[in-house]
Each structure stands twice: as C-alpha cells, then as structure tokens.
Amino acid sequence: MNNKEIRDLFRKNRPMLVIIMLSVIVLVGSSYAWYNVSYNSEDTNTVTAGNLDLVLQNESGVITLTNTVPQSDSSGLNSSAYSFTVKNSGSISNKYTVYLDDETVSGNRISDSNIRYSLEKNSYSTGAIGLNTLNGVSGKRKLAEGVLQAGETATYKLRVWIAESATTEIAGQQFKAKIRIDGEQTKHIVNEPELRGDMIPVTWDATTSKWKKADYTKNVWYNYDNQEWANAVTIKDTTKRTTYKNASIGTEVKVEDMNLMLVWIPRYSYTLRDQYGYKIDGASELSQATPGAFDIRFVDTSTTEMGTGKYTGTTPTEYYTPSSFCWGNSCDDETTRSNEGNKELPGIWISKFELTGTITDISSLPNKPNLKSQNNSQFFNAIKNLANNGTGTTNYGFAGTNYDTHMIKNTEWGAMAYLSQSKYGKYGNKSYSNTNKEIYINDYNQSTTGCSKGAPGTGESKSDNVSTTCKYQYSQSPEGTGASTTGTIYGIYDTSGLSYERVMGIYETQLAQSGFTSEAMPEAKYYNKYTGTTGIKGDATNADGTSGFYGDFKTFVSSSIPWVGRGGDYYSGIVGGIFGYAGSNGNGSTFNDTRLVISMWQ
Questions:
Q1: pLDDT tens per residue across span 109-150
Q2: N or C terminus of the chain with fewer C-beta within 10 Å?
Q3: Nearest CA to 192 among 133, 124, 256?
Q4: Cα–Cα distance between 226 and 428 in angstroms, integer?
Q5: Average pLDDT of the chain, as a whole number
C-alpha cells in the first residue's frame, strides 16, 4: 500500500485528535504555584511568582490535528506552530526546564514512535525529530531547558505532526499532552551561550570522529565541569547554511563547509589564592614554573564583583569580574565601568584557532595555514568589515542586533587564559598530570593550525624544538587535544606556539608600524590602553601576579614596542605559552596572526 492509499484510508476512519495543553509549575521557595490555561485564540498570559516571570504567548490557539493524515517532515516543519515565551524578570539567573507530559485520552494513545516534532528556540530549529527520542519517563518528556538571566527571554515554537511512516493501525488513536515549565532560582551557573543568526551549535562525536549539530534547546552540548566548552560554527555557503539550520539534531556538520569555529567563554569572576593559586590532584607542587588553579565562579550580568582578585587562606574571597565581560568605551576602569553605554556581557565567543584563509575571506579552521604577514590595522579592519552587519550576514550568517565581531583584545585573551587555568580548563583535566597540565605547544614549522607537539614548550634551541611535521592533529586525544585550553577537543587551540598573536592592547597611543593613523583609530572599546608598567586586571600579564607563569616570556609594552603580542611562535619553546606576552611595533610579519571575538549582549 502506497502513501496515497494510506492517507485515503485515514480520511475514511475516525478522526485523530492531537491537543497540546499548557500547564506551568513555578518554584518559589518551598512552595509551588500552579497556573492552567487553555487557548482558543491569540492571547497573552503572564504568571509572576517571586523572581521568575513566565510570559506565555499563544499565536495560533490550541494545536489540534483533526482528520489528520501522516505527512512528510518538510510539510510538518511548515505547519502551524504553538508559540510560547519564557521570561525572567527577577534579579538573578534562573534555570528552567520545559516538559511535554502525557494527558489522559479516552481511547488508545498514538505511540511516540509515530509522532514527529520540531522545536524552535529564538529562531534556532531542532529540525524534525521523533518524539520517542525525548528523555523522560511515564510520559514526562524533557522538551527543552535553559538558563535565563535577569530580564532575558526565550521564545519557542513547537510543531507536532504524525510521521509519514505511520501505518493504518493508528487510525482512531489519540495523542494528548501538556506543556509544563519548571523554574529554579540559582546562582553561579554557566550563562547559556548566545547565538546570532544562523550560527550552528556543534558537539563532537568521538565514535565517528565527526562534528555534529547539537541541541541548542537543551544544555547538553556543553559541560564545563568536564572541560567541554560550548562550540559553534558558521557556514559560508548560503544554501548549505539553510540546510544545516533545518537539519535534525545529530546531523554531521562537515568541517569543509565551515568558515568559523568558535568557543564560548561564559562570564565569570575569579580570585587567585596566595601567590600561585591552589593545587589540583595530579598537579606538580606549586611554583612559578608550575602554577596552580584560579578559583572561578560563573556569574550573571547582574553580578559585577570588584574585589582584589587575590586571597590568602582556604576560603576564596575578593572575586573580580574581568572587564572582558563588559563592552563599552570605559570598561577597563573600575570607576567608570558602570557608566551609561557600557554593557555587561553574559560571555564572549573566541575563534577556536588562529585566523586562516585570506585577509578578504577570513576563517578559523583546523589543519590550515594560518593567516600571516598583516599589520594590526589590516587584521582589525578585515574582521570588523567582513563579520558585522550586512557583510557578517552574507559571509557567516550572523543576524540580528546586540553583537560586535572584532579583533581580540588583551583582556579577552586573559579571560581565556584564566578559565583554562582552573578546574574547568586543562589544569583541571584529570587526563593530564604534573607538567603536562600546561597547554602543549604547536611547534609545526609549516604554520598549520591545530597541530600539537604532544608536550609543552620547554625552552630548547630552535633547531631542536621545531617539528617538520604536524605530529599530532587537534582531534587526537590526549596528545593533540592537549594543545587546547581544556585538554579536550572542545577547547581553544594555538595559544602556545604557531604564531605570535597580535591583540588589541596598546601603550599610550603609540601607533608605530600598525597601519593605524591618529585620525582613524578605532573607538576605545576596541582596545586596551596601557599607560604605565602594570597591566589591567584579568589580562594575564602582571596585574594579578601571573607574569612568568610556566616560565613564559614576559616583556611589557613600552613606547618603543607599544602593541601587545601573545602566545609565542612555533619555535619559541619556553617563550611560547598562554601566559606569555611581549611588545611589538604592530607591523606585518611572517610570525604573527590573530583571532576574532564576538561580544553579545541583551
């Protein structure tokens, strides 16, 4: 029997009924508040309870499938959607979970294996998925989960249809369910990664050694406790971009189709114990050459801590929220950070590898020659002009507002370095011990991204230290992944060795050979300005006592070498390292590259 015959048979039988009802459960202290509503027309309802405010909007009434027949996924994805919005109007972050619970039916229930669904979150789509793939027991399915900062919203669109593969045995059966939302107030949780436009969240499938589309509607695609930082990619080809956006969760996202690979650094506050941090099991005894961990706690945008960033004793105190999580012209100064126009950020995206491609077609991909021989203004303008506004949409699929893509600043480098040197980064990764907790150096003399020596740089002579092959590629664990900030494939690569990375940090306004002119310098928010011999807190130079960590090179900027460089180059040995820094004149060189950052705000 073909599909047309099946559909005809369905039409002759008793109608099927699919109803999505709504129920909300809100956690307030130790009590629960219930709110039940059934919609028949476009309406808006608000439930306010304590610090969690749920705004539920229904654009199309109750989802009712009567006289419905099986349909293809493409038709289901274009069917009418049930819409609802979750909003947090409280003062702290809230975790929430969206469930799809079974309701009692009068007859036989349609099996979940015969139901398909699609869920959109803030325009991101899961694609078509079988309802039987949802986690849950006794008909209580976890549909989505997330974290909302104060004032933040998440908008969902749910579509449900009968699978094209369904047979006539389900004629007359029913499906009835309700949406339930649980909310929980909490602090010190990872801020959910923000996406703009057609960014595709990805996760690594170790079994097949492939990147696959992750489920942005659930927080299962990252786990900072396990050194699995959130990754996302952009797609250059607009046709493939649309295909991946609409593809189902678990679809392979091919590296050859990507043009940017990005890693999320969530907003946090830090403090450093005594001189060298605290020791994690398996690490060497604390010293400047083998430093310990930063105390890190994740915070939301309503929390900006201004402690010293240092403490003595066993109880962490004096937390400081780095200015890398503030976007504006006066963020680096504690006295002006709260000025109007500055925006506190939930986190930043940093390119996973040094820049690749060309200056007119920039990318960040593994196993590619890095982009060299550009001065600072060429790097800055290429990123700014190619990856923002209309050009950013054309080239990378970025869309919407409240984001800025730019050349990495020195404080943003510091945010990456401190997180790596914590229990959430490579220092906390139990797969590495003693001196191997330091990030491995990329010592390949062909300047290829993502390569690893399989060991840290140790200060050998150039001829001894340089490799003529890519000894370990970025996906090889643990030797290759040891070159990332996490010791896993989910971290950021090329921070030790490969090329000295130019960052936007400048001494006074000494432009040197950077290509910038006094008439065409960027706004202050695009660079860190240094006026003396001390760095900015959180920038991983000398303001927090991290200078010389792992024995990395340390030369501060001055009027003669006013531009900051980070990470060392491929033959640097002990000079190369995530805590290394030096000054330069900002000119184009065969030993320099950079990376991009995306700041996002509500």
A1: 888 999 999 999 988 999 999 999 987 666 788 999 998 888
A2: N
A3: 124
A4: 9
A5: 87
pLDDT given for residue 465 in this prediction: 64
Strand partners, 306: 320
Beta bridge partners of 235: 258
Determine which helix (DSSP H) or strand (DSSP E) holds 415, and give its type and residue range.
Answer: helix 410-420
Closest CA to 303 of 91, 53, 89: 91
Beta bridge partners of 293: 278
Is the CB of residue 148 less than 8 Å from the CB of residue 86?
yes
Lowest mean pLDDT among 17-21, 444-448, 543-547: 17-21
Distance in angstroms (rounded) separating the CA atoms of residues 360 and 395: 11
Query: DSSP for 164-222?
Result: TT--GGGTT-EEEEEEEEEEEE-SS-PPPPP--TT-EEEEEETTTTEEEE--TTSTTS-
What are the tens digits of pLDDT across the range 380-428?
999 999 999 999 999 999 998 999 999 999 999 999 999 999 999 999 9
Side chain identity, residue 250: G
Direct distance between the N- and C-terminal alpha carbons of the chain, in angstroms, rounded to an integer: 53
What band does 23 get if pLDDT is binned at 50, 70 and 90?
very low
CA of 60: how far to CAs of 39, 63, 64, 76, 157, in Å? 9, 8, 10, 15, 10
pLDDT over 60 (residue 12): no
Backbone angles phi, psi at 578, to 5 degrees: -65, -25
pLDDT band of 42, cuts 50, 70, 90: very low
3-state SS of 490-542? Answer: CCCCCCCECCEEEEEEEECCCCCCCCCCHHHCCCHHHCEEECCCCCCCCCCCC
Phi-psi map region of 80: left, alpha, beta (phi>0 left; psi -120 to 50 alpha): beta
Q: CA 570 from chain center: how many Å?
A: 27
Residue-wise pLDDT tens digits, 486-526: 999 999 999 999 999 999 999 998 999 999 999 989 999 99
Q: Is 151 exposed, middle or buried (0-12, 13-18, 19+ CB in 10 A)?
A: middle
DSSP 107: S
Q: Residue 210 pairs with which residues in a beta bridge?
A: 205
In degrees rounded to 5, what are phi and psi of residue 71?
-140, 160
Q: What are phi and psi of 442, to 5 degrees?
A: -90, 105
User: For residue 98, what are the contacts with CB-CB under 8 A and spacing of at least 6?
Assistant: 86, 142, 143, 144, 145, 156, 179, 180, 181
Query: Please, which residues bridge with residue 202 across strands?
Result: 213, 231
Q: Return all residues near 206 (Cβ < 8 A) that are at least 6 apart.
A: none
Query: Mean pLDDT throughout 425-441?
Result: 97
d(CA 210, CA 253): 8
Residue 494: left (phi > 0), alpha (psi -120 to 50), or beta?
left
Sign of the Cα pseudo-torsion (485, 440, 536, 598, in order): negative
